[in-house]
């Protein structure tokens, strides 16, 4: 167990609030990159002169790059400075946005999307940097706000992208992304202090390559397995490659004196349980991103259809992200009084309540409505705000200050694995049972009510897995309220 106040803060009392606001803005910018592409998905094959299957890589490659780069950027942040790595991540977002903005074919567009994905490490770096610069009495609320920036960016991404793409052009969307990334990077450089902790040392290149290999194998298999076939040679080969490369990487890292990831710390019971809860939270977060948007946009003729256009559907879901941000402060209050493990467990149970409401809507005699979905999404957003904000606090209770970037990077990767699982499993369930209905754009396949029910039941079970893992984390010997 490591205290939260074992270093000298670098920010002056009057500037640390502004620094946190700028770091939250950086988190919102990089989380936008994960959702801005969604309104373009139907038109991407035509825009990039490629097949629909190839066009889906515009989503997959961002997820892959973010999951692979996040723990590496966290480790480099511990070694050479977190602000320096954060600026590098934002620079990658800006460069990738330019590449996407000038692209009209698949390969350069995927390169740009991959560079945008490298910016996802910003959130984990920002959380670790907050620990360096924020006074102890505001540490929990600041960490919570940074974590919840993921929800704000995700909720704003859909309407932001839909409005620009519909009223200007899809190229303009990426020019705007470049502009906001540059502005935020400048603000980070001017406002955010560098922090005091930089361990130095040699970078574990072999460990980074090994991590990249097995992460690509498992995330690619999970995200594309349903499309390729779970029994196809490619999918089976990727799973086999993951097992072999992960085992070899583990053997190498265990013996390396300056390992990329400290396996002793990350394999400890508190960190493993927290990361298990993080995988589950990532799953239920993305499952709730996938299902309501399809119900809202499905034709009214479908039993589970509301019939809203993209912009209106996105606006219905937007309050969920704002609620997520607001409840990050509730999470800080709970953490100060009861500890981060209790906050994470309570947050998981609140998410479960939202899924119970979703299940009631699907099983009830009345058809789904946008009002129902606003309420459900708000409840799930509240739970996510509590849970996501508690994760980094719980991680930092159990790791030394010199490894916060690495540990938070690994934790962020666990959430990415959870979202990949949701993409694969929930997507497979919804695709397995559907009916065709007419819409203004022609016949469209719509998942049946039973498909949504099974996906909802599975997600509800995952909520309880997250809660059980959270409550199973050992009670801290040093309570958070004793140091804040």
Question: What does this protein structure show overall?
Answer:
The protein is mainly alpha-helical and 484 residues long. The chain is 74% helix and 2% strand. It contains 18 helices and two strands. It has helices spanning 16-32, 44-48, 52-55, 57-80, 82-101, 106-117, 122-133, 139-167, 170-191, 205-228, 233-255, 263-266, 269-297, 310-338, 340-363, 370-398, 404-432, 449-472; strands at residues 434-439, 442-447. It has a two-stranded antiparallel ribbon. The radius of gyration is 21 Å and the shape is globular. The relative contact order is 0.14.
Write a compact overview of the structure shown:
The chain is built from 18 helices and two strands.
Distance between the termini: 16 Å
Cα gyration radius (Å): 21 Å
What share of the residues lie within helices? over 70%
Order of strands, widest sheet: 1-2
Number of helix segments?
18
Oligomerization state of this entry? Answer: single chain
Q: Would you tell me the structural class of the helices and strands?
A: mainly alpha
- The rough form would be described as globular
Q: Tell me how many strands there are.
A: 2
């Amino acid at each position: 167990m490591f205290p939260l106040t074992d270093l000298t803060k670098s920010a002056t009392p009057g500037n640390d609030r502004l620094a946190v606001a700028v770091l939250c803005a950086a988190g919102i910018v990089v989380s936008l990159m994960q959702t801005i592409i969604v309104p373009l998905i139907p038109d991407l094959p035509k825009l990039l002169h490629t097949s629909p299957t190839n066009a889906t890589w515009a989503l997959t490659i961002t997820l892959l790059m973010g999951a692979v780069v996040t723990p590496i950027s966290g480790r480099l942040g511990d070694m050479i400075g977190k602000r320096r790595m954060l600026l590098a991540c934002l620079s990658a977002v800006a460069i990738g946005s330019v590449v996407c903005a000038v692209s009209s074919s698949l390969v350069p567009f995927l390169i740009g999307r991959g560079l945008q994905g490298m910016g996802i490490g910003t959130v984990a770096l920002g959380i670790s940097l907050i620990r360096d610069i924020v006074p102890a009495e505001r540490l929990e609320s600041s960490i919570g706000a940074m974590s919840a920036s993921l929800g704000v960016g995700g909720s704003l991404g859909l309407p932001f992208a839909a409005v620009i793409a519909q009223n200007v052009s899809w190229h303009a969307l990426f020019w705007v992304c470049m502009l906001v990334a540059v502005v935020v990077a400048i603000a980070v450089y001017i406002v955010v202090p560098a922090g005091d902790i930089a361990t130095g040392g040699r970078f574990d290149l072999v460990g980074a390559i090994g991590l990249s290999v097995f992460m690509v194998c498992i995330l690619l298999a999970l995200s594309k397995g349903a499309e390729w076939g779970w029994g196809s040679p490619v999918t089976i080969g990727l799973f086999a490659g993951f097992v072999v490369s992960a085992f070899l990487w583990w053997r190498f890292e265990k013996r390396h004196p300056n390992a990329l990831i400290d396996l002793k710390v990350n394999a400890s019971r508190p960190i493993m349980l927290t990361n298990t809860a993080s995988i589950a939270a990532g799953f239920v977060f993305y499952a709730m991103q996938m299902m309501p948007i399809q119900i809202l946009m499905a034709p009214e003729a479908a039993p589970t259809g509301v019939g809203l256009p993209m912009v209106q559907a996105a606006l219905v879901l937007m309050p969920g992200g704002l609620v997520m941000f607001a409840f990050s402060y509730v999470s800080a209050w709970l953490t100060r009084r009861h500890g981060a493990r209790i906050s994470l467990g309570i947050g998981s149970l609140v998410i479960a309540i939202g899924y119970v409401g979703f299940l009631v809507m699907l099983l009830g005699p009345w058809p789904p409505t946008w009002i129902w979905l606003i309420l459900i999404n708000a409840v799930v957003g509240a739970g996510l705000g509590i849970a996501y904000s508690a994760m980094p606090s719980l991680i930092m209770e159990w790791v030394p200050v010199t490894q916060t970037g690495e540990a938070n990077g690994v934790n962020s990767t666990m959430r990415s694995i959870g979202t990949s699982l949701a993409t694969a499993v929930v997507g497979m369930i919804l695709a397995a049972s559907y009916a065709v209905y007419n819409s203004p754009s022609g016949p469209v396949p719509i998942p049946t009510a039973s498909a949504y029910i099974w996906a909802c039941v599975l997600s509800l079970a995952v909520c309880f897995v997250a809660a059980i893992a959270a409550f199973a984390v050992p009670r801290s010997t040093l309570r958070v309220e004793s140091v804040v």
